[in-house]
Amino acid sequence: MNLIECKKIVKVYKSSGLEFEALHGLTFSIEEGEFVALVGPSGCGKSTLLNILGLLDSPTKGHYFLNDKDTSNLSDYEKTILRRQSIGFIFQSFNLISNISILNNVKVPMKYADVPFKEADIRAKDLLSKIGLLSKSKNTPLQISGGQRQRVCIARALANDPKIIIADEPTGNLDYASGQEVLKIFKDLNKKGYTIIMVTHDKEIAKSAGRIIKILDGNIVS
User: Fold this and answer.
1) Which of 25, 28, 130, 170 is deepest in the core (most CB within 10 A)?
2) Element containing residue 181 per DSSP (H, E)
């Protein structure tokens, strides 16, 4: 079953009267439960595509179907709700709130989803326990290592139990050992049925995925 289907996705940016077409009519699908790597050099359109898949941006032309729903017909509010319910994000730069505990960082998505405080607290502690960081729940992100921060990001991405995990260069700021640890967590999540979409420019990292989509100059080349 296709969880994601993109049909002739075009993205055009306009600036100072000039137009730049970043994506040139991409058509592809991702099945539920797949682990897919989007691979290509800097500036090829990976991040633009990822923003569209994550409902953070919209295509200029074409249609993006998420769970058979044509997202091009949705309002910004409807996209926000769908994104909150369906997608968890992991970023290269972590995007954690530095002055609150990692426990409270994990609870942030649940706050926006109106999860009751007690339930959110229990769920966040359970997620930290699963990634081996419950003992550091009171630490702030600045008091733990980069690899540990990315594991917190994974817990945060799972907070509202989404179907899809979108990871943008998740190992880009990590040493080799920490990167391998993160990839192992992704593989374990994928075995549990989560759909993983990972952007990377590293061909070796991409081999962890079950399928690789190569992008070059705004086109899918393989």
Assistant:
1) 170
2) helix 176-191
